[in-house]
Amino acid sequence: MFRNFKVILTTRPSSTPPKLSYATQQVRLTGFDDQAKEKYILKAVVEGNAKEAARIIQRLQQNPVLADICQVPLFFVMFAHMTYEKETSLVLDSVTSFFRYVIACFYEHIQIRAGTVRISMKGASATKHQKLDKVAFESLQGKDQHLVWRRDRLVQLIDEPLYNELVEIGILVEENVVRIVDEPGTSAADLFQRRKNVSFYHKLFCEWYAAHYVVEHIDGLKTISLQRFFANIDPFDLQYVYRIACGLSTVAAGKIIQYLHSLEGGDKFAILCILEQTGQVDKMKDTIRRMCSEGVIISGYDSLLLQRSSMQLLEIAARNEIPIEYVNLYNCLQSVDLSTAAIRTTSTLALTSRIPVKELSVVLSNRDMTEGEAIDILQFSSMCPSIRQLWFYGCVPPRSFNVGSTLSTLKSKDCEVLWQWTAETPSYILNLRSGRWKNNDDGSEPAEEVFERALSKLSEWRTGYTAETYRAEVKEGRENLRKFAEKRKGYLR
Fold first, then answer.
1. CA pair distance 27, 67, nearest whole angstrom
2. What's the pLDDT tens digit per position in 407-460?
3. Which PANTHER family match (predicted)?
């Protein structure tokens, strides 16, 4: 049945071949969701103690800075066990403090096993590792990152005592590799070549040591030199190099934040870097309040890091009761989960009903919106106490809605529901009594041909959609978002 199918499995979506058909189906595998995390805690950490499991989950949910790194199963497992074992004394308010503690645990575990004295968190990184820092930084350069070494080569680069220490601790992992030499004239004895390869236990450990290299070399760099220094260290791929460097050094933080502000989309990421330095949201409230007052755009054209940075900004604002003017979901809608009152984006992030947003805009010009999706978005909005306006933009919603209870809830909370196909076409407002659209200017109901014309234009646009069209749209996406933001106030009555 599937003999003509071609399947690409990758952990790096950015490396997907560029000339794929628009009809290509993409599936994101996310096997470690919230339900899986809860099951793991109950079974492997607290042995069925539901109260303790809830406490651990609550600790994670209360800390949006760590919530992102705990998407990685390895670090979630570490966080869960550390939180359970250290009921009161463990305070981890940044990625840097989390990693420092993880490194300390690696050292402590091996020392306990050897019967030596327990070490402190600060003592965990006392070993001189400047050579390893340099190797780690250089290995992350560019797209073709070098994350596996031959044992003899790495020993030569970082010195054998440090190498042996990190292998014993578990930060470096050795692997026996057999290479088949299939060349003419090769003797039977030389046909199989055995050697040891070595890599970090997880790539984020490589970023930890690379961040130390940044701290060691960034002090005297000016703006132009900073750009050269970070030219091949993409902040939207190697976020933890930047964040950890900011947590390790105030001087490095100042330089890095200055550099990030010069990048498109760098402001939101800079917030995460600042939090690494302060560890306290209170010192950042004015900046967060300013950014939320301008509105937050979560775009399907943005990198996963930028989307996560935007979502973390919303989470931080929600926990500190900072109002959010509007949120624009720009071509990134995946589904609506009414059981958890959350909108899922194409990057599997969740916009929950607890986010205090006044206006929600759903832009969906890249695919059809189903009737079920539109109804679910209405129901989601009715669950959000703060939403006062819901916008459908660049899509074709149902001609009418037969969901009386949801419409009544929206009406009782004075929430308007509006639709506009393009910036050049009239806007329509949903009559929350009848469930039908009416012109926002004269109150007339749109003719059937309005919906048909919109569907036809959308279909026509997609017919010529190619990989080149997609690349052009990505390039122009930020400009389209800017225009949308400028015109949005004109859409209001």
1. 23
2. 999 999 999 999 988 777 888 999 999 999 999 888 888 888 888 888 887 777
3. NACHT DOMAIN-CONTAINING PROTEIN, NUCLEOTIDE-BINDING OLIGOMERIZATION DOMAIN-CONTAINING PROTEIN 2-LIKE
Helices of type H across 347-436: 371-383, 404-412
Longest dimension (CA), the chain: 88
Residue 131 Cα distances to 71, 158, 247, angstroms: 30, 5, 21
Alpha carbon 356 to its chain's center: 20
Q: Is 319 strand, coil or helix?
A: helix
- 382 by Cβ neighbours in 10 Å (0-12 / 13-18 / 19+) ranks as buried
- Report how far apart, in Å, the C-alpha atoms of 356 and of each of 97, 315, 353 are: 29, 9, 8
Q: Which residue has the tokens 């420092």?
A: 100
Q: Give how far Cα 106 sits from Cα of 60, 169, 256, Å.
A: 22, 6, 29
CA distance 220 to 226: 10
Dist. CA 112–CA 311, nearest whole Å: 40
Size of the chain, expressed as the number of residues it contains:
493
Beta bridge partner(s), residue 335: 344
Residue pLDDT, tens place only, 15-46: 567 667 767 777 776 656 777 888 889 998 88
The predicted-structure confidence for 155-187, as pLDDT tens digits, reads as follows: 999 989 999 999 999 999 999 887 776 777 666
d(CA 406, CA 384): 12
pLDDT, one tens digit per residue, over 282-327 is 667 777 888 888 888 888 877 676 787 788 888 888 888 888 999 9
pLDDT in tens, 114-129: 765 444 444 444 458 9
Distance between CA 325 and CA 289 in Å, rounded? 10
Nearest to 427 by CA among 380, 462, 389, 456: 389
Per residue in 332-375, pLDDT (tens digit) is 898 999 988 999 988 778 899 989 999 999 988 777 888 999 99
CA 218 to the chain's CA centroid: 26
- Dihedral angle sign, alpha carbons of residues 116, 117, 118, 121: negative
CA distances from 124 to 86, 106, 107, 127 (A): 18, 8, 6, 8
**3-state class (DSSP) for residue 224:** helix
The CA distance from 285 to 308, in Å, is 19
Beta strand pairing call for 416-420 and 389-393: parallel
